[in-house]
Amino acid sequence: MDAEEPYRNLEPDDILSAVEQAGYHCDGRILALNSYENRVYQVGIEDEKPVIAKFYRPARWTDESILEEHQFSIVLAEREIPVIAPLIRDDKTLFHISSFRLALYPRVGGRAPELDNPEHLLQLGRTMARLHLMGETEDFKYRPELNVSSYAVDSSNYLLENNFIPDDLTDAYQTLTSDLINRIDSCFKSANPVRYIRIHGDCHLGNILWNNDAPFLVDFDDARMGPAIQDLWMLLSGDRPYMTARLYDLLEGYSEFRQFDPRELHLVEALRTLRMINYAGWIAQRWNDPAFPLAFPWFNTQIYWQDHILSLREQAAMMDEPPLEWDP
Asked: Which CATH number fits domain 5-106: 3.30.200.70, 3.40.50.960, 3.40.1440.10, 1.10.3660.10?
């Protein structure tokens, strides 16, 4: 049997049984949450607040790397940095139940921050700086590094080797990604030396909850070693003047707690390009999971790859532009 089959076919009884075996009394209510890499559910608990149950995709992370992520978020929470850390039950945060591995989290409500609101950006900057102050105190031992090889080279090779790119676009994609990888390498050289610290790694709006006038960071599943700007650039979009204005608000808050290295601004468009290449590769690698064709019906169509290549060409032009400017 495929090792992922029980995970792909996770049933309500499996979910309730696993949470019960982890030490909670369920009331039978289950709500599937918006997650694809892992299976995540809100589960009702008798006479208590619901919990969030996260079932890890098999084989993606080792137990050691998951526990390292848990410990990082727990330490951050202990320092009163607003993150959602896993619940501890019987001195455990990771549970092995049947063929599943799961962690449980408190439910925290909220909405996405407003990225055109200077006060929201100031607070986000402060939060990221405090996270990075802890992130630089030691290195991850079991979690990977954000790099060009894993995000771009491996992803593009997978797409080509597994025939995801239409035949009439293969040469264009291969030539373009090779050029982009060279440009990304040049951006990293311009930012040299790039300091790698423990980061959240995937700090998009879906992983930030605005609650009680403060941001809460959720889902450290992609936590890894990387440059600090990786946790900031996803909060910047739009044309250059708009991004520059947002950058000043963000770094005003950030600089209250931690010094920001402006050389990392050379990496903004390089990291955006890496994410775009890696995102396509990530969907392709999960395409045998029935949840993915349902969630991404537009993927792997002719028009998708045409648009993807066009977007990557625009990124090549963006990397030729001077980096965003910031004068502390």
From this structure: 3.30.200.70
Q: How many angstroms separate the CA atoms of 180 and 17, rounded?
A: 48
**pLDDT by residue for the chain (328 residues), tens digit each?**
466 777 888 999 999 999 999 999 999 999 999 888 999 999 999 999 999 999 999 989 999 999 999 999 999 999 999 999 999 999 999 999 999 999 999 999 899 999 999 999 999 999 999 999 999 999 999 999 999 999 999 999 999 999 999 999 999 999 999 999 999 999 999 999 999 999 999 999 999 999 888 899 999 999 999 999 999 999 998 999 999 999 999 999 999 999 999 999 999 999 999 999 999 999 999 999 989 999 999 999 999 999 999 999 999 999 999 999 998 8
Closest CA to 19 of 36, 43, 39: 43
Here the tokens at position 203 are 């700090």
- The neighbour count for residue 198, using CB atoms within 10 Å, is 24
pTM confidence score: 0.94
* Cβ atoms 176, 277 nearer than 8 A: no
Q: Which residues of 241-266 are buried (b: 16+ CB within 10 A; e: fewer)?
A: eebeebbbbbbbbbeeebebebbbbb
Task: State the catalytic residues.
Answer: 202, 219
Nearest by Cα to 124 from 15, 60, 217, 3: 217
Contact between 312 and 177 (Cβ < 8 Å): yes
Start and end residues for every CATH 3.30.200.70 domain found in the chain: 5-106
Domain 118-320 falls under CATH 1.10.340.30: no
